[in-house]
Amino acid sequence: MCGIVGYVGFRAAADILLDGLEQLEYRGYDSAGIAVKCEDEIKVYKAVGKLKNLREELKLHIKEFQNSTMGIGHTRWATHGAPTVLNAHPHTCNCGSLALIHNGIIENYKELKTQLEKEGCIFRSQTDTEVAAHFIAKKYAQTHDLTEAVRLASKEFEGAYALCVMHNDYKNTIVATKRNAPMVVGEGEGEYFIASDVPAIIKYTKKAMYLSDNQVATITPNSIKLINADGSDAVQKFELLPWEPVALSKMGYKHFMLKEIHEQPDVIRNNLTGKLKTASDPVVLDEVKLTKENLKDLNRIQIIACGTSLHAAMVGKYLIETFCGIAVDVEASSEYIYRKTVTDKHTLVIGVSQSGETADTLTAIKQAKAKGSHILIITNRPDSAMAREADSLVAVNAGIEVSVAATKSYTAQLMAFYLLAIYMAEVKGTTDTSILQSLKNELMLLPQKVEQVLANTDEIQKCARNYSGTKDFIYVARGINLPTALEGALKLKEISYINATGYAAGELKHGPIAMLDETMPVLSILMKGTVYDKLLSNSEEARARNARMIALTNSNDPKLEELFDCIIRVPDVQEFLSPIIAVIPLQLIAYYIAEFLGKDVDQPRNLAKSVTVE
Ligand code: F6R
Description:
Blueprint: E1 3-8, H1 13-24, E2 31-37, E3 42-48, H2 51-59, H3 62-65, E4 70-76, E5 91-92, E6 98-106, H4 109-118, H5 128-143, H6 146-156, E7 159-167, E8 174-179, E9 184-187, E10 192-195, E11 207-210, E12 216-220, E13 223-227, E14 239-240, H7 256-262, H8 264-272, H9 292-297, E15 300-305, H10 307-324, E16 327-332, H11 333-336, E17 347-353, H12 359-370, E18 374-379, H13 385-389, E19 392-395, H14 408-428, H15 433-455, H16 458-467, E20 472-477, H17 482-496, E21 499-504, E22 521-526, H18 532-543, E23 548-553, H19 559-563, E24 566-569, H20 578-596
Parallel strand pairs: 15-16, 15-17, 17-18, 18-19, 20-21, 20-22, 22-23, 23-24
Antiparallel strand pairs: 1-4, 1-10, 2-3, 2-4, 5-6, 6-7, 7-8, 8-12, 9-10, 9-11, 11-14, 12-13
Helix pairs in contact: 4-5, 5-6, 8-14, 8-15, 10-14, 10-17, 15-20, 16-20, 17-20
The structure holds fructose -6-phosphate.
Fructose -6-phosphate binds near residues 308, 405 and 406.
């Protein structure tokens, strides 16, 4: 989604802003702009499309801003108004002396706009952001104090926002504030950096502070003043960020997505470290803050998430119900928040989110928290808004994920669910020790098995080439791999724009089978176990309709050779762990098809890495 960068210091501001925005590109955007303080005025430059268009625009004006050492920059993912230059940020007040960038949505912008129009403001864009610029300018006219203007204005804003503001009367000051949207301030020697996410600043400094909701920071090259919404001084908590700039490099891979797929063996190892020592030791999950008595009393769990995280949640449901005997509901956050949910202090609510910032999931967990439920968050960002809402925080240690298509974070979320399910089963004593021990044994072998899949991609690449011309693609599975089918289809559609759908194979004959003919690829996730034979007969039904059949399997069953045109083999693994082994070839098929079709793999159209609007 939108990206924010701000800089006050001694370096060329435009360079820092562009560099920071580039690091946030992965979040998805459709226009960009910067405002820089020049000799005696603020200059604003904007362009539609990728940052290279903004760079071209800036080249034409380089003399105007080359000495500027303060500015704000933004990448916009259109919500209110099309991606045009007029709608791009920064926005200014009518006289141009105040410039502002904004992430989020000011929900009461229509009322504020009507009021401002009556007072003579002329609006040039369709955005809610321009309303904020005029409104803060109005407060500035009353107070002649930028910090106070931002503080008073934000009290009247409803919704979620992160704002950075500069004013012509201030030679080297940026004022920033936020509510329900992330904002981090980085401290250097004689300079400060502001950003909506760490990648924009990590190259310059690791010393940083996350703003809390409603705090207002007034930042100059050598100082930061932090106040609360009521004007009182707030405590500054600078810390050293645990990120390395190297995480943001492709390390020789053509795309971040491919690099991140290949990082999965290490991600699995990282998630086992400290939690699973040997198969006979119990899983250690100190992150779960429910007492053993509370855990034993639990009779219901709700898991809420979106997209790929929702698929991880579905695997989680399967594991928890099987090993712990607790009823689990899984629901898309966007549905959960608009109905009357039955949740109380006896329900454990688990939120799953790579980014920890997804607006729908954040709202859902806040609703559940208000009803008294214990909130357990599984996230890749322990520094996120969701993490701050957690009673129990399970960080999944996937490292920063840059590609919009989630891959390693999915595997990491699955690992969190394996550990959580085993941990709860051990506390509750609901599953035979020998079953849990064999599961733990195989969990420890998983990294090597994933490495084997990654080392043998010839058949996967061949399959991707053969099917890259298709317009539709069907994935079928049953049981614990139904979410794998949904995830494989999601990966393919989001980066190749092929109409891919995942089905429970038993549902084929209730409708989807009508679509099958000799043009339709059907990929069966045929992992050995309880539903293997059933899925095999569903695959036969599809073959009988002349579909182009692909098997993803760990079986050596000779029948498969007759039934399938293409067979992708993966190492043998017990059924419970097969979702991890099976998803890797599906990620790779999606990657190679998109790459073959020449798509923008890491930044697919219309998508954003973290969806901070509902
Ligand atoms: C798919 C993908 C999205 C996200 C979804 C939720 O590859 O990345 O479907 O999974 O937007 O995001 P998080 O997990 O950050 O809440």
